[in-house]
Specification:
Blueprint (H helix, E strand, L loop, with lengths): L2 H23 L4 H17 L1 H13 L5 H14 L6 H7 L2 H12 L4 E7 L5 E4 L12 H4 L9 E3 L3 E3 L4 E11 L6 E10 L4
Antiparallel strand pairs: 1-2, 1-6, 3-5, 4-5, 5-6
Length: 195
């Protein structure tokens, strides 16, 4: 291939990426993702297995101080690159994580990741390893758990370098059906190209 053709290919690729990014920048993804949250994800978070797992972790972590949360998050981050991952393995191996992996697998490529957080923003279960354990300082938890029982937050579209697909995350509150109280939140990564 000549250098001119190579350059044209690179420019065409960049132009295509910019065009696709501009198309999603208009928030066209928000309505279908919100509908997916209401029609599908709401059913997932109503499952008794999800509710009980979140309530159990809320009770277990009731006495944690911010320093404890920071230490747990630091330990998690260190384990993401370590040979031994006892904390990560414990979460990935629990029943809730198995349930979430099943939902992701059944989505036929639409769902790229799923994780559930407790009332402190700490991971309860997840389909894949997250880069951190504490989500409480991020919009995905703050704009759902802290916003009330009907909160749905759809984030911006970003290019996922590992999969070369455009993705966004939708997050929503998890509510205890017995009390109507918000007990946690869920975040679902969505492959925008599969919407």
């Amino acid at each position: 291939m000549s250098s001119t053709n190579l350059l044209k290919g690179i420019v065409t690729g960049i132009a295509g990426t910019l065009f696709a990014t501009a198309a999603w920048a208009s928030d066209a993804h928000v309505a279908p993702m919100t509908e997916f949250a209401k029609s599908t994800v709401k059913q997932w978070v109503s499952d008794p297995a999800v509710i009980e797992a979140v309530k159990a972790q809320n009770a277990k972590h009731a006495g944690l101080a911010q320093a404890d949360i920071d230490k747990m998050d630091k330990d998690w981050r260190a384990q993401t690159d370590a040979g031994s991952k006892p904390m990560i393995d414990a979460v990935l191996g629990n029943a809730l994580s198995n349930y979430l992996r099943g939902k992701q697998d059944a989505s036929q490529g639409l769902v790229t990741e799923v994780f559930v957080m407790d009332n402190l923003g700490l991971n309860v279960g997840q389909s894949d390893v997250t880069s951190d354990y504490w989500q409480g300082d991020e919009a995905k938890w703050q704009k759902t758990y802290q916003a009330g029982p009907d909160a749905i937050f759809v984030d911006e579209v970003e290019m996922d370098e590992s999969t070369q697909t455009f993705q966004s995350q939708l997050s929503m509150s998890i509510v205890d059906p017995a009390t109507g109280e918000v007990i946690g939140a869920i975040t679902v990564g969505v492959n925008i190209d599969a919407l």
